[in-house]
Amino acid sequence: MDLVNPQKNIEQKMQRSIEVLSEALKKIRTGRAHTGLLDHVQVEYYGARVPISQAANLTLMDARTIGVMPWDKKIMPVIEKAIRESDLGLNPSAQGDFLRVPMPPLTEERRRDLVKVVKHEGEIAKIAVRALRRDANEQLKKWLKDKEISEDSERRAQEEVQKLTNAFIARIEALVHEKEKEILTV
User: Fold this and answer.
1) Sign of the C-alpha dihedral computed for residues 142, 7, 120 and 36 taken in this order
2) CA distance 93 to 30
3) Is the model's pTM score more than 0.70?
4) Does 178 lie in the same domain as 151?
């Protein structure tokens, strides 16, 4: 942490927690199709494991269907198998040169389960932000003990870190609430 401006450093780390949460929430499907849903699915392509987006062109065919057009037609069965075996519960079907990946409608029970997953991801992000706050406060106390900063500076810096923490917790809660609403919308 930077002695001159510890808030800037902690803010960047907290922002990274928000980005990780956003990526995790993108993977949770809502019944509507979006190509980001397949980002974490990996396939064997010329001896290397790569995301599907690096082995095929992903497009939205309609609101509930993703189209996957492999660049090399020989890997189409590999891509189909990878999507089928992923934790997304999708069942792709080959149609000529491309795969159709329909999004099955979500049941009410499945929606509730997904909301629980979203809340859990939000809690993980909050824990990460609070851990960053704790680390920053410990560093400030160490600097105070080593007489690198004054008591007033330490107290002001702790207040700033707390304000940052509160702001980021509010952003996390807003992201979680938005995703909950998206999932529960039929």
Assistant:
1) negative
2) 20
3) no
4) yes
**What pLDDT score was predicted for residue 107?**
80
Any bridge partners for residue 94, and if so which? 99
pLDDT reported for residue 31:
65
Q: How many domains does the chain have?
A: 2
**pLDDT for position 74:** 87
DSSP readout, 95-140?
A: ETTEEEEE-PPPPHHHHHHHHHHHHHHHHHHHHHHHHHHHHHHHHH
Alpha helices in the chain (DSSP H): 6-26, 76-85, 108-145, 151-184
Position 1 in a domain: no
66 backbone dihedrals φ, ψ, rounded to 5°: -105, 135
Separation CA 101–CA 65 (nearest Å): 5
Domain residues for 154? 6-26+107-184
pLDDT one-digit tens code per residue, 157-180: 999 999 999 999 999 999 999 999
Give the Cβ contact number of residue 141 at 10 Å: 13
How many residues are recorded in the chain? 186
Which one of 102, 122, 153 terminates a domain? 102
pLDDT digits (tens, 9 = 90+) for 31-69: 677 777 787 788 888 888 888 888 889 988 887 888 999
Phi and psi torsions of 91, nearest 5°: -130, 90
On whether both 95 and 39 belong to a single domain, the answer is yes
